[in-house]
């Protein structure tokens, strides 16, 4: 039973020198978790302590059952926005009622994640190509960076996207709190310096300690610099939310909506960080980990959570090596909650903004974008689309844009499959592409055409036009036109009808259509559609060598 825990597998081969990195990374994750834990509950009208609970227990649940050594879970703005919409119908409810409903939603989301893991819905995340993932994670990083404007300036920035926050900053320039700006800039410069000199102690941890001590010595709060403020000093108790002032239908629909957002943004973020950090993401197991995290949150009065961009960014930048980071972060948050409340309340918010801004910059993959640019201009465009979606429309809309861009890219690739005429090289075995091998020559009277891709409803007209064009270009003595279907892995009924029409059109001009190396699934479809009967068994071949033997035996006039 215990061997099923992901943390047991994750700690296999654990090295003693990893412990230092895991502890410092865990402390850094805990330090930057405080602002979002305090701010996000207000979006859904929940008490502050619920955000703290939702930052501790999910880390434990994911560390035990989540497969990744790098990903961190926690509150997410997109998830909280949908949660707020679900709870909007409870405006007259007490805070306790809203907490119970949020906890019930977390349990339902966890159950949906586990069910999705069992039936393999994680495969949906495979629709995102690496260029789009690189663009998407860079877009998320830019969003995190821009999101720190409010923390640096002491302003309440309400705009989203890339440029609107700067325009709002310009309009509110006279309200900027310059001591906050100076502190944030100083802490950001310290982080850059520590990164440049490759400090053995993670920069985020140094900044939190230095900023906290400075706040206590120089009374930053008295000078108008925002600080974290007081936190609750009570740990959550295990409870099952039974008294829910939310209709069951609304609860289930709301859980589905929250799950969709959590699932989409969480798995896309997981794959994005996996591409950035060069680690493999098992999406079905990630769903199981997210399910465990949400169930742990719901059982201890928390709300739904997903993969946290900022906390994962901090973990990667601090060099965390295993799931121990999550446990250390959870323990640190618990200790902070119980014993360091007075010290935490003095932590200046601009310093935390500097930590998040530096982490975001480190995740903008300039080298990856350059590599995509060198490899394919078209794929670079899709990388920019993924980046634009995350920056301009938010993480959830960015997910939709990224998936849509990927599907468009796949369709564009498949709409015009490549083709090539094949020939022989004297004295050599096999067939060669005529346009690539200068020594290759077509077999007199025989045309062999290779289609490199599936033939489906959306590219049928193009493939038919290519086959007819290639047939028109053949010498007058050509009698056989054989389709090499070795690269055609899929056909549909529209393609079957097209091949039947091509067979009839070729027959009217005295050209016999044959098919070679047809895969089993397309063969069964063509047999059921009656196309193979029209072509005839004499013109169906297992490989191209059989084509040559039959052609030479029966002659081009057969």
Using the alpha-carbon principal axes, give the shape: elongated
Share of β-strand residues: 5-15%
Low-confidence stretches: none
Oligomer: single chain
The total number of structural domains is 2
Largest sheet: 6 strands, mixed
Radius of gyration from CA coordinates: 30 Å
Membrane topology: Multi-pass membrane protein
Subcellular location: Membrane
Main location: membrane
Protein name: Sulfate transporter
What does this structure look like?
This is Sulfate transporter. Its main location: membrane. The chain crosses the membrane at residues 21-40, 46-65, 77-93, 99-121, 133-155, 175-194, 201-218, 251-270, 324-340, 346-368, 380-412. With 558 residues, this protein is mainly alpha-helical. It folds into two domains: 2-406, no CATH class; 418-554, STAS domain (Transcription Regulator spoIIAA), CATH 3.30.750. The protein is 61% helix and 6% strand. The protein contains 23 helices and eight strands. The chain has helices at 6-10, 18-43, 48-65, 77-87, 95-118, 130-146, 149-153, 164-171, 178-196, 203-218, 248-277, 283-299, 309-318, 324-339, 341-344, 349-362, 366-375, 377-415, 460-472, 493-508, 520-528, 531-535, 544-554; strands at residues 73-74, 306-307, 418-423, 432-433, 446-452, 480-484, 512-516, 540-541. A six-stranded mixed beta sheet has the order 4-3-5-6-7-8. The protein is elongated and about 95 Å long. It starts with 5 loop residues before the first helix and ends with a helix. The mean pLDDT is 84.
């Amino acid at each position: 039973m215990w061997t099923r825990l992901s943390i047991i597998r994750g700690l296999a081969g654990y090295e003693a020198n990893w412990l230092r990195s895991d502890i410092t990374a865990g402390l850094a994750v805990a330090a930057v978790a405080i602002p979002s834990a305090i701010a996000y509950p207000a979006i859904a009208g929940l008490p502050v302590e619920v955000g703290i609970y939702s930052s501790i227990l999910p880390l434990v649940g994911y560390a035990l059952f989540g497969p990744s050594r790098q990903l961190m879970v926690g509150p997410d703005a997109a998830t909280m926005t949908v949660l707020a919409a679900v709870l909007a119908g409870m405006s007259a409810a007490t805070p306790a009622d809203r907490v119970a409903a949020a906890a019930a939603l977390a349990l339902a989301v966890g159950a949906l994640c586990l069910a999705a893991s069992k039936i393999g819905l994680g495969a949906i995340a495979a629709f995102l190509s690496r260029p789009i993932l690189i663009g998407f994670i860079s877009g998320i990083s830019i969003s995190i960076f821009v999101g720190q404007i409010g923390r640096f300036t002491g302003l309440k920035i309400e705009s989203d996207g890339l440029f609107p926050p700067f325009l709002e900053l310009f309009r509110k320039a006279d309200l900027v709190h310059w001591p906050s700006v100076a502190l944030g800039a100083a802490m950001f410069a310290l982080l850059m310096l520590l990164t440049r000199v490759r400090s053995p102690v993670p920069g985020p941890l140094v900044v939190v300690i230095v900023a906290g001590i400075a706040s206590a010595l120089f009374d930053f709060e008295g000078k108008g610099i925002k600080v974290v403020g007081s936190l609750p000093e009570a740990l959550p108790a295990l409870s099952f939310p039974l008294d829910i002032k939310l209709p069951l239908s609304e609860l289930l629909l709301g859980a589905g909506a929250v799950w969709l957002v959590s699932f989409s943004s969480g798995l896309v973020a997981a794959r994005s960080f996996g591409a950035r950090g060069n680690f493999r993401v098992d999406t079905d197991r990630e769903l199981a980990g997210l399910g465990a995290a949400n169930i742990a949150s719901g059982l201890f009065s928390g709300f739904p959570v997903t993969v946290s961009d900022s906390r994962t960014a901090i973990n990667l930048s601090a060099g965390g090596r295993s799931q121990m980071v999550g446990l250390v972060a959870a323990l640190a948050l618990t200790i902070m909650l119980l014993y360091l409340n007075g010290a935490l309340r003095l932590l200046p918010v601009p310093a935390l903004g500097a930590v998040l801004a530096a982490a975001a910059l480190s995740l903008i993959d300039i080298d990856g974008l350059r590599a995509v640019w060198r490899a394919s201009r078209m794929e670079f465009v899709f990388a920019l689309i993924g980046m634009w979606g995350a920056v301009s429309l938010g993480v959830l809309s960015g997910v939709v844009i990224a998936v849509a861009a990927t599907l468009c890219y796949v369709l564009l690739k498949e709409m015009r499959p490549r083709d090539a005429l094949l020939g022989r090289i004297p004295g050599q075995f096999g067939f060669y592409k005529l346009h690539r091998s200068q020594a290759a020559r077509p077999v007199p009277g025989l045309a062999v055409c290779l289609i490199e891709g599936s033939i489906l409803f959306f590219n049928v007209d193009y493939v038919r036009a290519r086959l007819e064009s290639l047939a028109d270009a053949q010498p007058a003595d050509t009698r056989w036109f054989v389709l090499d279907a070795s690269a055609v892995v899929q056909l549909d009924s529209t393609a079957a009808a097209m091949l039947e029409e091509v067979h009839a059109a070729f027959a009217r001009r005295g050209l016999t259509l044959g098919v070679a190396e047809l895969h089993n699934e397309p063969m069964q479809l063509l047999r059921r559609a009656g196309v193979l009967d029209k072509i005839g068994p004499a013109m169906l071949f297992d490989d191209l060598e059989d084509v040559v033997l039959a052609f030479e035996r029966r002659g081009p006039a057969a």
